[in-house]
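Quick question: what would this complex look like in 3D?
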Amino acid sequence: MYRIWPSGEVTDSATTKAELKKNWLMTESAFVQFLNWFDEGVDSGGEKYLEMRRRLVSYFDRKNCLLPDELADETLNRVARRLEEEGSIINVSPAHYCYIIAKFVFLEYLRRTEHGQVSIDELSPLSDTALSPPAISERNEETDREEKRLNCLEHCLKDLEQNNREMIIQYYQGEQRAKIENRRALAEASGITMNALSIRACRIRDRLEACLSSCLSL
Amino acid sequence: MNEQNYDDEILTQYLLGSLTEEKTERLDELSLTDDQMAARLQMIENDLVDAYVRGELSGKTLSQFESSYLASPKRRERVSFAETLLVLEKKRATEIARDTQQTTVAAGPRSSGDSSKRSSRLRIFVVPRLALQWGFAAAALVLLLAGGYLMFENMRLRDQMRQAQAERGALEQRERELQQQLAEQRSSDSEAKKELARVRDRLEELEQIAPDQRPGNANQRALRIIAFNLAPQTRGIGQIPTLVVPAGTDYLALTLDLETDTLQAFRAALKNTATGQIVWRSGNLKARGKSKTVRVRLPASSLKAQNYTVDLSRISASGVAEIVSSYPFRVVTQ
């Protein structure tokens, strides 16, 4: 006996719904549907999806989850699958629905860790520097490693657009009061508010962090 | 909690895991559903990490950061990135400071905090600061010296002016005195001239008075005077008058007819017609009122039997004598 699921998948009657969910893979059409649902009618070019993913990673990271990126992807996959199965999700915004799913994912994660069911693959590769909170004095002694990081960061800065590069450099110039005044002047010169400047600087910083991480892994 | 006004301190405590479970759960939801809150949280987290790597955290915040925030490998990577960013920032600041120090002495220890654009702008003021200081000092010194010189010169000129004014006043006083003296002298000269004229007139009058009529001459012998009347010589050649002078004659009283103005003074001179030698001169003579004649009294002792001429001169106001008429005659003695 066979069963035909709403997704169109045909399985035998022995396959449980849970197993089907576990083996679900996002198709291209499902992804497009998912992005459109996230944009809520305003095409963001995938930016809203990426922003939500970033928020989810930070959320799981704050919860001290070992693999926050995977948990964030798991959350988004479940949202996309539910959207495909139901066709639409009403009475709740995409962000709220992601939060609801993220809570379930986190609770499942806690259950697995409590029962010791976290696989070795979920453990992050530990390095000497990750075992304990690093002291600046210790890192300063690793001149070669720091030199490589510095070179990668300079390379990543060069990859930025000129206006973004100049902005991020000036944004982090100065200390304490001078830095605040500098940022205020930068906002005025750019014709934007302080809040908009901070948001823009944060996005540029995220790109640099991702670029640096990629450069160091080479 | 007011979702529209996120307290940075609350968000910091949230990031450090020091809030209650209820508040934490609420902020968990907002961090995913509220765009404004999510952006603010990201900024606070970046600032918190930057503050840690700059050594600006202290006390409880620092301990919570190291114990809670750094427990996550991903968050430790963020700290590493912030450290590398700080190193790069300091490296750029050092390079700018070194370039600035090559031409100025005013590079500060916190020049690492300036942006490249601000540093290039600051170079305009920093590079020539020493030259500007010396320039201003030199300009001030020049102004001071110039001011002192001008003040000294002003005082000297004022003193000169005072001296010139005093000298001028003295000269004007001297001029007034000299003018006064001149006026006095002129007055004196005028009086002297008047006196001289009076004396001469008196002498003339005395000479024309008969000896026996003179005061003090009553006991002396009566003089013998012979009077003649002479007319001026004309151009025509005519017989000159002959005057017979008896022996014992004392004077010849000649009455000379005048042809000119009679208001002036005259003088007579007796001349030897043959030789032109002047044998006798008179004093100042005046015309006799309406008769238009001048009387001349010649001493007979000075006369010989020969031709004579009496030249009558008019005396001008300046004392210059001018012959106006000549009276020739012959003397015959008995």
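Answer marked as accepted. Chain A touches chain B through 52 residues (CB under 8 Å).
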